[in-house]
Amino acid sequence: MPIQYHETSQTFHLTNRWFSYIFKINHEGYLIQLYCGSRIRDKENFDELYELACRPMATNYYQDDRTYSLEHLKQEFPGAFGADMRKGAIEIEGKDGTKYTDFRFESFRIEPGKLELEGLPACYVEEEAEATTLVITLKDEHLQVRAHLLYTLYEQLPVLTRSVRVENDSENEVRIEALTSLNVDLPDDNYERLMLTGAWARERHIEWEPLHSGYQSVYSLRGHSSHNFNPFLALKRPSTTEESGEVLGFALIYSGNFEASVDVDTYHTSRIQIGMNRDTFAWLLEPGTSFQSPEAVMVYSDQGLNKMSQAFHTLFGRRLARGVWRDKARPILLNSWEGVYFDFTEEKILNMAKEAANLGVELFVLDDGWFQGRNSDWTSLGDWVADEEKLPDGLDTLCSKICDLGLKFGLWIEPEMVNVESDLYRAHPDWRLEIAGRHISAGRHQYVLDFTNPAVVDAVAKMLFKVFDGLNISYVKWDMNRSLTEVGSTYWNASHQQSLYHRFILGVYDLYERLIERYPNILFESCASGGGRFDPGMMYYAPQAWTSDDTDGVERLKIQYGTSMLYPISSMGSHVSASPNHQLHRNTPLEFRADVAYFGTFGYELNPASLSDEEKVLVKEQIRFMKEYRELIQLGTFYRLKSPFEGNETAWMVVSQDRKIAIVAYYRVIQEINTAYRRLPLQGLDPEQTYTVSDRDGMFYGDELEKIGLIISDSSASENNDGKNEGDFLSRMWILKAV
Ligand code: GLA
């Protein structure tokens, strides 16, 4: 049984092949965290880990016992503004106006499988046997409010999920002011904290920082998970590497404002919390109603960062993403954006599509600019009908002409937004988020629709249904190009205004759910000015996301490497674009750009008509290559080998599930002169197996390639260079096949 309860010691032991998570109910009914780490054998009693200590200046629960202080206990669901004196996992304002909370054990149940979370994205199981769920019910007697802690332990993955459902069983309304999805108190602070941080065009860069005393966090207050920080943090031991050592990863399945924090106290314990950002959240809970928090995920690895990432990849790729595309290699697409921007006619688009079809592209995506009057980013968001000037015969005709070329057809939308210059805004000026009587900021000349108002979501849904119904559409890119500011809604009264950020994202989820239900075969790609909402919440609806507006191959090394910490290759939108690159104006070889873009969903974002004949031959070959290997690349096991954050070189590889075939990719940004001999140790191969390596003679054992490595220095490369570029922006790929 993966979740054990020991009656005599009142201890829960959640354990699978990889880790143990142990906590107990103490005498007063608080849940006390005892151990979170590498798997240990089960026993009846772990009470030696329950530390009571007499500490000066502590406040004590009992007058006559100086050893018992909540401040020094490691807890699972600490209350707020009591004797714990750190940030609580839950704050509730009761009818007396105080925000003190005090939740004690009431009951528990253990059941097979996993519970669904209504209206929220969450991981799931396909068979009950895949996971076991523990529901612990705690109660604050004074408030008459219950908290149900939902733990799910996966059997075949080093994964524990947790969320909280709060239920108001009193006769008064209460206001939830803060609710973290997961709280873990660890006994020491000997960790480095990993963040995925950045900005537009340089999303999810990896940053490490040793834990220090006090509060440290990453967060969003932008209404979307943001380019700036991802809803994720990992704690690794200082000696942990990609291949070895302990690391704990925490992610939140949520797309709105979040906070992921570590609070190190003066006794060096570390409180980890991840959940909705308490600064922009409050929820009025009527008597007899409940509120469900988003779900948090904890992944444990004692075999380094790669193993942590692989667990996230499997979980997010196979048990969070849904739909017919989940397990399939993704279509190779041509996106119109960087090729023509807003400037196109039907003829121009059809020419692009024809060229694309000749090159072997499978899906043509018409990006921004196709709808009524949309010739710049100043107008038309909200008016989801085809522009009559650009597409006089309508979308249907364009779509069928594109399909006649043997291509699938896809479309860009930005449903959460409105321009003032639009019929929608003129008809419903009260449908944007704003605070009456206050200044309102613009972002990309546009405003955010009030998705907290169900009538707005309904109206947008209806417009989109009208576009998609009957259209032979296979793909939708859902964009979101500005953050939320000055958030207020005329739909809600004053006591609900603090719930708007959360209600907004629930509105987004609602519309997504309606679309995927109505169009189960459409492949959705999420996007927010590139990677501004590349988060686990979105993956539940859209199995792939536009990784970044930055399509420069060199920049993409860092962006894709960082993104791979958490997200599978099958989720990373990656396109080859023109040179010089439109963001950086950097020239890189076409081979280099493709060698980077292969490690994602792969496509092109340029006007194929502007390619030279020589380039067309190369592109055809690239598409042929990707068709042959995309299943391996997108669904295989991914290993990071060399970090672009540490130098001039980057390397990664994918290995098939049966370890019979692998692809290794190596990138060197700047040419170096007269360099030393170098080897690249590989990962994930079968040590007993012999492999051939493309462009190398002979056979190599798996363990030989892992322990000694592939020789990657110049002298060896230039001998076999097939005329490939040898200057700056060099890339090499090797295919390993078991023989
Ligand atoms: C955003 C997206 C781009 C493109 C444009 C269109 O910036 O990230 O890929 O779709 O919008 O306006």
Shape: globular
Ions, cofactors and other bound molecules = alpha-D-galactopyranose
Strand content: 25-35%
Per DSSP, the total helix count is: 13
- What is the straight-line distance between the termini? 41 Å
Mean pLDDT: 97
- The strand count comes to 39
Helix percent band: 10-25%
**Main structural class:** alpha+beta
Low-confidence stretches: none
Main sheet attributes: strand count, strand direction, barrel closure:
10 strands, antiparallel
The value of Rg in angstroms is 27 Å
Task: Supply database-style keywords.
nine-stranded parallel beta sheet; 13 helices; 39 strands; alpha+beta; globular; 739 residues
Report a brief summary of the structure.
By secondary structure, the chain is α+β, with helices and mostly antiparallel strands. The protein contains 13 helices and 39 strands. The chain binds alpha-D-galactopyranose (GLA).
